[in-house]
Write a structure and sequence with these properties.
The chain is an alpha+beta fold. It is about 45% helix and about 25% strand. It is built from seven helices and six strands. It has helices at about 5-15, 25-30, 35-45, 80-90, 115-125, 150-160, 170-175, and strands at about 50-55, 55-60, 65-75, 90-100, 105-110, 140-145.
Length: about 180
Amino acid sequence: MNTSMRREEILKILRNSETPVAARELASRFGVSRQVIVQDMAVIRASVPGILSTTKGYTIQQENTCTREFKVRHRQDQTAEELNLIVDCGGRVKNVSISHRVYGRVSAEMDIRSRQDVREFTEALASSHSTVLSTATSGYHYHLVKASSMERLDLIGSELEKAGFLAPLQPWEKENEK
């Protein structure tokens, strides 16, 4: 199989997969090194919008969904509770970001879709002896959340507010929201 054919097949796999596909899995499938797959993905991503690289692999964004960014605040020990609330309401946490006074906007892909993903994330965080990104901003952070409808996103916002996680937007953030 030549390079062009392999890249076409990789794209088909991503389009048909409900979960992220790891580079090592693609490398094994095509009998090439992980580095070859990483190079293939760089070329594919340059021409195909919506392909994300997450800690669990490559995924392609689906078009029939809605997204909203939520500003939240909580302690690190409440991370699992917050993420579980979002996935239990039908949301998918695409990323986390902070707005830092010196560094500006800092983001990290997450792709949290289930309680299992939440468990794996919190275990990885604990075993790495790291802290959540929001420790740099007194617990304030943003999540880009994807859901099947605006009603689901409204439900997520309502539940985050009930749990005391939803943070008020500052005047400049309201201007950026439009």
